[in-house]
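From the methods appendix. Each design record in this collection lists the tokenized structure first, followed by the designed amino acid sequence. Records were kept in a plain field format so they could be parsed without special tools. The example shown here is representative of the layout used throughout.

RECORD:
FOLD TOKENS (79 positions):
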């Protein structure tokens, strides 16, 4: 899987106002900014991303994903 493919999978499954994906094909990092995260704790935010990935984590197509999940307000106020 490429950065672009993973980016598209997340974007197709979750409305994002900002999305960055990088990695080596197995270990990934992502910054995901979505209004869908409003009012959610970090674990619930991550669950939304996992839902967008579907079974790709279970089948090891995406082996590891480290993510920062932010609301648009959190993203705008970062230092």
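DESIGN:
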């Amino acid at each position: 899987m490429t950065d672009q493919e993973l980016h598209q999978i997340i974007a197709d499954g979750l409305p994002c106002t900002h999305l960055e994906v990088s990695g080596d094909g197995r270990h990934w990092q992502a910054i995901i900014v979505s209004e869908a995260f409003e009012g959610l704790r970090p674990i619930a935010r991550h669950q939304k991303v996992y839902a967008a990935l579907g079974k790709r984590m279970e089948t090891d197509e995406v082996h590891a994903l480290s993510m920062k999940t932010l609301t648009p307000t959190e993203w705008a106020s970062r230092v």
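APPENDIX NOTE: The CA atoms of residues 9 and 53 lie 7 Å apart.
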